[in-house]
Amino acid sequence: MNLEYVPVSQRPKTIISDVDGVILIQANKWPVKSYDPREVEAIPNTVKILNALYTAGHQIILVTARPEEYRQETSYQLKRFGLQFTQLVMGLPTGQRILINDMKLEEEGIPTAIAINLIRDEGLTEQDLEFAEVAIEKAAA
């Protein structure tokens, strides 16, 4: 058994992403009147990037304020666009989301949580991910 230490930066990541406005275009203002799968568009670049992260072994956790009663429709919408994900958490409040995480003792000073705030419906880009990596490096310095 190989028990070599793997630095935090090289371990699989947990990516937590909102659904509406990040993965699916949120054409309607809240509250959404319909979750009809035929009335939704994906943001292709976000789907592509999240799928690449999933394929690379990272966990993709999706969160949404959509009520639990729309789980089937929401899952169908996401899978219709080919999105691969680990878990879908539904029924969250529409307020701000705050991630709290500890710093690993074995690598003091390495942040284990970062945030990327996107403009609604514009999607995730490779530059957003690069910005996140730079933020981690700067915080560790």
Task: Write a structural description.
With 141 residues, this protein is α/β, with parallel strands linked by helices. The chain has one domain: HAD superfamily/HAD-like (Rossmann fold). Helix content is 26%, strand content 9%. It contains three helices and three strands; from the N terminus they run βαβαβα. It has a three-stranded parallel beta sheet. The chain is elongated.
Key words describing this protein structure:
Rossmann fold; alpha/beta; 141 residues; three-stranded parallel β-sheet
Oligomer: single chain
Gap between N and C termini, in Å? Answer: 33 Å
Q: What is the 3D shape?
A: elongated
Overall mean pLDDT: 85
What is the CATH level 1 assignment?
Alpha Beta
What is the β-strand count?
Answer: 3
In terms of per-residue confidence, which ranges show pLDDT below 50 for 5 or more consecutive residues? none
CATH architecture: 3-Layer(aba) Sandwich
Entry summary:
The chain has 141 residues and is an alpha/beta fold. Helix content is 26%, strand content 9%. Strands 1-2-3 form a 3-stranded parallel sheet.
Helices, strands, pairings?
Blueprint: E1 14-18, H1 44-55, E2 59-63, H2 71-80, E3 87-89, H3 126-140
